[in-house]
Amino acid sequence: MNVLVLADTHIPDFARSLPATLEPHLAWADRILHAGDATAADVLLELSACAPVMAVMGNMDGWDVAAWGARDELRTTIEGVPVSMLHDSGRREGREQRLRARFPEARMIVFAHSHQPVCDVNDDVLFLNPGSPTWKRRAPQPTVVRCVFEAGRVEAELVPL
C-alpha cells in the first residue's frame, strides 16, 4: 500500500492552495496521513478526493478540522505495521524516548509541528516528520514522505517538492 505522509499545509493561513508539485504524489497514494496544521477542513476534503485521509489535530487547527474527524493522536495498523501519529512531539532532545514511551507498540511514529523533515530508523522504529509541502521555514525545501507498506514492513522516502 502506498501512503503519502504530509503535515503543516497551513492553508489558507500561509499558502492559498496545495502546490501543483504535490499532484503526482497524490495520484500515487492509496492512503494519506496528515500530521496536523491543515488549518482548514477544506484541505482535508481536497486530499480525501485523492485517497482516504487520516488526520490529527495541530495547534493551528480549529473546530472545523475537529468536526471533519481529526483527533489529538492516532493509533492504527497499516498492512501489519503499527503506526502512531501526533502533531507536536515536543523538544528535539529526548524526542525518540518520549515518543516510544507514549506509543510503545508503534513501529512507525509520525510527528510534525517544527516543519523540519525527519526520516530516521532507530531500534526498528521509523520516526517521520514530513516537513511541509507549503511552508518550509528553515528546511532547505518543501517536502513530504512517501511510504510503501507491504507484508508487515514499511519503507519510507523523504521527497522534496
In short:
The chain has 161 residues and is of the alpha/beta class.
Taken as a percent bin, the fraction of beta residues is 35-45%
| Largest beta-sheet characterization | 5 strands, mixed
How far is it from the N-terminal to the C-terminal residue, by CA? 21 Å
For the biggest β-sheet, the strand order reads 3-2-1-9-10
Average pLDDT taken over every residue:
97
Give structural attributes.
4 helices, alpha/beta, 161 residues, five-stranded mixed beta sheet, 10 strands
How would you describe the overall organization of this protein?
The protein has a five-stranded mixed beta sheet. Strands 4-5-6-8-7 form a five-stranded mixed beta sheet, with helices on one face. By secondary structure, it is of the alpha/beta class. The model has no long low-confidence stretch (mean pLDDT 97). β1, α1 and β2 form a beta-alpha-beta unit. The protein is built from four helices and ten strands.
